[in-house]
């Protein structure tokens, strides 16, 4: 078939949501994916969706209001923006539609604070939903087509761990109950590996991608992998189809083309328009392998992109610190330091002068913003810990309870020394300064205090710490030799810059009008949050909501009429 009602380009949460919505509303849908795998960056993400006011939250007893959400977001963006209003007004309806018409199942995260609890309108929970666990076996042979999580985020070469598992696993060496729980997880994984290429218990973003992938298949969406779009076809001012490779054929779209390629993270020429010069070019997103990202395709036919920005404050990127190492097979691992180590007790981050430069437990976005400030001289920065910390929490891609770290040391990923003086020499920072930095930190850390940066004094930071560590879940001294360090650099977790759209994700032209038949969602769409990051799931939440709105509008179906007016 060379003509479809809807063509969706990209198979992350935004693309899959759009495809599922259109198919559920009775349209013929083709989903194009440039890589071999379905799932995009969503499949390797945490899978959380920041969608305030959901039915799940109300059922769980949360009495959040749109006014309170707007009050919080007003510290970051213009809450009168029509796109933001559409997101807030229709988020719950989008989720409800998907739960009724697809295999998506979610639950509210009862405790996960907004990233800036000091701002009025923030909450400690209820605004985030996460996907239910999923059995990959339900995909059958297509399980192998689902993008796998990062190897560094799994155990035993393919065993996924959920958020609720982590606190239990950390106690496996101190609690019989935790040890038995861990043994059951490993046993189930061992059984899985008798049949599958990895564990079939899928959690986090992998579960979200898998559920939407299954839904797309069940709804009759045709999915073509290793098929990249090279151009949009525009006739009489309307987008009517796409040209694809490798066979250079044209495919017609009767209603619309929806771009969801993952954004401009891997298009350096575009990316440089929106980030400071010292940000570098690293991205923690999945490279699709496409010749052109959605923004390039759209710009070629006259679509409007975000205004250029270069300062730290104006940068149109969603940041995360990453560490980089070579794997055994020669590929490069880019590990995002989101929640696994920076906020835990017994670690500090230092700059090239051997000095702390920020609160290590702040959000990953704000941590990188601090790195980017030239006066902080923190590119790269070094995360420093001791033997006790490494064993309990791990560091970057070094997993907790690692009996040997020799391979990571040999590759230069993990630096080790028996003294702080030796570690300073190993990482190339002034010896006397690093020694004084650690001594100063330890003096107060023994009492759970951090007078320099007030670490652990907000509910968000405490949530990122270890509740078993008293009195401050984020602070403990660094004093058990040997000592370790890993270098972290700025990277984007997705770009906020993209194709300018209206409240229904319709792409706009340079004249301000919409381009008939063209939509942009996910990271291809200019973020409703611009370059701010108010809470967990602020990329996937809008991706799902606008994927739904775009497809609903393109279908012009009465079933979705209330959601697209």
- Biggest beta sheet attributes: 8 strands, mixed
| Backbone shape | globular
Give the name of the CATH architecture of the domain at 319-492: Alpha-Beta Complex
Q: What are the segments in which pLDDT stays under 50 over at least 5 consecutive residues?
A: 557-565
The tally of beta strands, per DSSP, is: 21
Percentage of residues in strands? 15-25%
Annotated CATH homologous superfamily of the domain at 319-492? Succinate dehydrogenase/fumarate reductase flavoprotein, catalytic domain
The CATH first-level class of the domain at 319-492 comes to: Alpha Beta
Radius of gyration from CA coordinates:
23 Å
Question: Would you tell me the overall average pLDDT?
Answer: 95
Distance between the termini: 32 Å
Which oligomerization state do the chains in this entry correspond to? single chain
CATH fold-level topology of the domain at 319-492: Flavocytochrome C3, Chain A, domain 1
**Helix vs. strand class:** alpha+beta
So how many helices? 16
- Estimate the helix proportion, in percent: 25-40%
